[in-house]
Amino acid sequence: MTMPSIRTRRLTVPLAVLGAASLAACSGGTAHRAQGVPVTVATTAVRPTPYEIDANGTVEPIQTVAVSPQISGTVLHVRFHEGDDVTTGQILFQIDPRPYEAALAQAEATLGRDAAQATSAVENARRYEALAKKDYVATQQYQDQRATADALLATLRADSAAVRTARLNLEYATIRAPITGRTGRLLVHEGDVVRANTGTPLVVINQIRPIRVRFAVPERYLPEIQRRRDERLHVLVRPNGGDTTAGGGVLTFVDNAVDTTTGTVLLKARFPNADEALWPGEFVAVRLVLYVDSTALVVPAQAVMSGQQGTYVFVVSTQDSTAHVRPVTVARSNDSIAVIHSGITAGDVVVTDGQLRLFDKARVDITTGLGAGSQSIVP
């Protein structure tokens, strides 16, 4: 009587244990499947957004002058320090003027001598003219006197030109700044002998206030630039690798032809550069602002993904916390935002981080995020 009941108890205990284990396993699997992919999200928004063209540019001075000597001689004085700011007309170098003072004095003496001779010759020609009319002298004699007077008058004009040349050379002994700007490295020193027309400058002056930036954009933007050229288009620049804008300027030049080798058109912008943040020869990132689109639908640029079928975003349904693939057409983008032409609407919640683990209708776990404006959203 007791033996069967013992066997029954031994069999029922393992079955209960297996049932409990099975329920636990099922419960654990359900919980695992319910866990979503952690993602960061943002809300799409309509806001005024500039239509901008990004390019790389080079800073160049408005004017640059290589100051060279126009006469030869010894440099007596250097009236500035290299790197100084100079103004138009400021004395930079003084070349020994004594040889040119002597040349001027000699030219003026020659002019005085020939002027006296020319005056006498002219008077003689007048007297012979009167005598020739009365047949007191031969016509040939009068013509000879007239020719002598004309020759001396021509010599007098040549002497006057020589005086002006000598005076100009003396002025060239004092070398002045032709423009206002910043001097570069000094290439001569006091006591050096310089020569004219050698092609070697004494110093180079760059005008850096204001200053110019040259850059090129693809030719597809040319029609829009031409339509808005009279609006004084705004240009922003920042040094390559920098994170702050160096200044704002205006577009001043559009080249009259497209470069056929690169398919780009050359542009130039002018900047006040009062703080000297821009320096000649510097490479800068340029942003040309064509206009401001007041109805642009924007999302963070990192929300847009590219695939074989084109660009798309993951739109999160806040009702069931699932992500859905949504093809989109991007009108334009930069480092921070993308302007969407079609595919989503304002107020949609898009994934900005964690897309690589997602697929269509995948469950997500929203952690935190930033809206397309500046408001954080945590659905």
Characterization of the model:
- The protein is built from four helices and 22 strands.
- It folds into four domains: 86 residues, conserved putative lor/sdh protein from methanococcus maripaludis s2 fold; 96 residues, Elongation Factor Tu (Ef-tu), domain 3 (Beta Barrel), CATH 2.40.30.170; 58 residues, OB fold (Dihydrolipoamide Acetyltransferase, E2P) (Beta Barrel), CATH 2.40.50; 76 residues, Helix Hairpins, CATH 1.10.287.
- β12 and β13 form a beta hairpin.
- It has a six-stranded mixed sheet, with no helix packed on it. A six-stranded antiparallel barrel has the order 2-11-14-13-12-15.
- The N terminus and C terminus are likely disordered.
- With 379 residues, it is of the alpha+beta class.
Count of discrete alpha- or pi-helical segments spanning 4 or more residues = 4
Shape: elongated
The main sheet orders its strands as: 16-17-18-22-1-21
Which architecture of the largest domain does the CATH hierarchy give at level 2? Beta Barrel
